[in-house]
């Protein structure tokens, strides 16, 4: 009975919020420096979404970047948008897409949370709290 109630509640959340930020995390960093944010964006909806911006009260600015390897050299490029396909996901992780939290307003250490708002071309906004540590430690998704 409990699992049936939980499944119904989870379905209601998914129906109400088709975009989900799963396991947002960031490594520790000092005030004034830049940190990287990682997250998996899941689109439970039937319409493709596009991430177009991110803001955090703990950073002067946040940029979307991608990393790639060519000829043994890693390069990073600023991106204006990242597609999140209908029924799919976009993974932000080391060596790929990531968020650059530029000009941190305070030092972040393991156990801290870095709040952020992700904005999509559709106007949808998803709030996420990036757990500071050495990896995706919290398996609980952030629904909004």
* CA-atom Rg in angstroms: 16 Å
Span of the ends, CA to CA: 26 Å
Give me the CATH superfamily: PCu(A)C copper chaperone
Number of helix segments? 1
Tell the overall outline.
globular
Give the CATH architecture: Sandwich
Structural class: mainly beta
Low-confidence stretches: 1-16, 138-144
Query: SSE string, helix = H, strand = E?
Result: HEEEEEEEEEEE
Which CATH C-level class is it? Mainly Beta
> Could you tell me the strand content as a percent range?
over 45%
Main sheet properties: 11 strands, mixed
Helix percent reads 10-25%
Arithmetic mean pLDDT: 86
Number of strands: 11
Domain count: the total is 1
Q: Any idea of the CATH topology?
A: Immunoglobulin-like
Structure description:
- There is one protein chain.
- The protein is mostly beta strands and 144 residues long.
- The protein has a single domain (18-136), classed as Immunoglobulin-like, CATH 2.60.40.
- The protein is 10% helix and 52% strand.
- It has one helix and eleven strands, in the order H-E-E-E-E-E-E-E-E-E-E-E.
- It has one helix at 2-16, and strands at residues 19-26, 35-43, 49-55, 59-70, 73-79, 82-84, 89-92, 98-104, 113-120, 125-132, 142-143.
- It is globular.
What topology does this entry show?
Elements: H1 2-16, E1 19-26, E2 35-43, E3 49-55, E4 59-70, E5 73-79, E6 82-84, E7 89-92, E8 98-104, E9 113-120, E10 125-132, E11 142-143
Parallel strand pairs: 1-10
Antiparallel strand pairs: 1-2, 1-11, 2-7, 2-8, 3-6, 3-9, 4-5, 4-8, 9-10
């Amino acid at each position: 009975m409990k699992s049936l109630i939980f499944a119904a509640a989870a379905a209601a959340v998914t129906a109400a919020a088709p975009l989900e930020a799963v396991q947002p995390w960031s490594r520790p960093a000092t005030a004034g420096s830049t940190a990287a944010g990682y997250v998996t964006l899941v689109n439970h909806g039937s319409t493709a979404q596009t991430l177009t911006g991110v803001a955090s009260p703990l950073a002067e600015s946040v940029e979307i970047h991608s990393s790639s390897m060519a000829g043994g050299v890693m390069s990073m490029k600023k991106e204006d948008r990242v597609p999140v396909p209908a029924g799919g996901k976009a993974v932000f992780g080391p060596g790929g897409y990531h968020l650059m939290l530029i000009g941190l307003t305070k030092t972040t250490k393991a156990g801290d949370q870095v709040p952020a708002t992700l904005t999509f071309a559709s106007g949808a906004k998803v709030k996420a709290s990036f757990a500071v540590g050495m990896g995706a430690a919290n398996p609980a998704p952030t629904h909004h």
